[in-house]
Amino acid sequence: xxxxxxxxxxxxxxxxxxxxxxxxxxxxxxxxxxxxxxxxxxxxxxxxxxxxxxxxxxxxxxxxxxxxxxxxxxxxxxxxxxxxxxxxxxxxxxxxxxxxxxxxxxxxxxxxxxxxxxxxxxxxxxxxxxxxxxxxxxxxxxxxxxxxxxxxxxxxxxxxxxxxxxxxxxxxxxxxxxxxxxxxxxxxxxxxxxxxxxxxxxxxxxxxxxxxxxxxxxxxxxxxxxxxxxxxxxxxxxxxxxxxxxx
Length: 247
What we know:
Largest sheet: none
Order of helices and strands: HHHHHHHHHH
Mean pLDDT: 84
Shape: elongated
Structural class: mainly alpha
Number of strands: 0
Helix content: over 70%
């Protein structure tokens, strides 16, 4: 019997606000802080690996199928399986969850970096070379800024996926908000839904806020994209006004 069905059969309310208020600064806050660390550390680590790896794959095209196959195979391995394997080497530490989740992000981030770099038009690269840009300066000043929207799209997917996957770590004792779910399911008497609902709501909110923040960062780092959209809208308004005047 699940915690939800047990609570329903006992007439237990879905949310007990008294429990939330008592644990807001304790168990809930601690689980939330742990969830933040376990969610974003693997993404940063994965991005640090994916950028040079993606650059190498974009430069040497024969390397890309091998890397893509390796990251896809890793992503196909169930998270709990990797956690259990890493426990033998890292014990019950944050590393047990951080490293597998960082490996999972590579299956999203490496293709995003490669696709982003491949989206840079050849004439843009040639123009940069004609202006005297050396390879490193061309990469940092021309290619990566153009590739940024594609890379950021992959980063958003990887971040939201990680926020969800962290909860699986609760099955080995390290799972941030997932620990609240385990608490609710193991509650004496057949289940207690309040910590489960609290965990689900906080995970959803964290994913939404993280996605919006990354979208904001993307907009701030790519002002030309906004200018392009604004110019397109202005052109459409002008064309509509011209058409209306002709009528």
